[in-house]
Amino acid sequence: MSQKIFLAGAAGAIGRRLVPLLVRDGHRVFGTTRSTARVADIEALGATPLIVDVFDADALVRAVREAEPDIVIHQLTDLSSGLEQDPEAARRANARLRREGTANLVGAAIAAGAGRFVAQSIAWAYAPGPTPYTEDAPLDVGAEGARHTTIVEGVVPLERAVLDASGLDGIVLRYGQLYGPGTWTQTPDGASPLHVDAAASAAALAIDHGAPGVYNIADEGGVVSVGKAMTELGWSPAFRLDRSDSAITV
Asked: SUPFAM superfamilies annotated for this entry (predicted)?
């Protein structure tokens, strides 16, 4: 069934792979960016571009209300502003986006009457324990240093905002370490690697599959269990975009 999708982060690594999937499935997609330079890219992918800053809560509410989406998808991160030059500043910026930006986006989704909210989280936030980690394993809320910034200041408030939202079916996708087109590496890396196309596929499936809750999304054989996503979302870590999908190399 065709639906209206508000995709926050349409020009990001996952967003660029996700838009063609949504368009292919007949959905009308409104894709956000903060940069006018990305407007043409989003249009080329087949979405309607919207320039909005997730930290501007009033403007965000207006944008989401105008789009009147059935589904809101959150694929925003803020790691492009100096991860190599100033890692701690980049982590703080990304944690703020996850904490404050997610709260604003959830509020806008509720104000616009959306029924479902799909958000990106991470699969390496679990507390030390037996592996593979399932979704009910505890997060590492006692982490210190850089890991505290990422998990306690970013991931935990993001997930709570989504899963506790009144009137929304909230789904959290805990992504592994991305590889593939538009990411940091072209080959699997990390304890729970994930191809960017498979990440996009999980978000597309979560539109109308799966009960509200948390799903690990990563390659099989890593430190997280992905059986729940494979069973309930019908997801496969082997998914790759077909060359027939339009504008996938943007």
From this structure: NAD(P)-binding Rossmann-fold domains
What pTM was estimated for this model as a whole?
A: 0.95
pLDDT tens by residue, 175-206: 999 999 999 999 999 999 999 999 999 999 99
What's the CA gap between 12 and 77, in Å, rounded? Answer: 8
| Token pair recorded at residue 147 | 């890991």
b/e 93-106 (16+ beta carbons within 10 angstroms → b): bbbebbbbbbbbbb
Cβ contacts of 117 within 8 Å, gap of 6 or more: 71, 72, 73, 74, 105, 106, 109, 162, 165, 168, 169, 170, 171
Q: Check whether 14 has a pLDDT greater than 80.
A: yes
Place of tokens 């790759």: 240
**Is residue 122 within 8 Å of 95, Cβ to Cβ?**
no
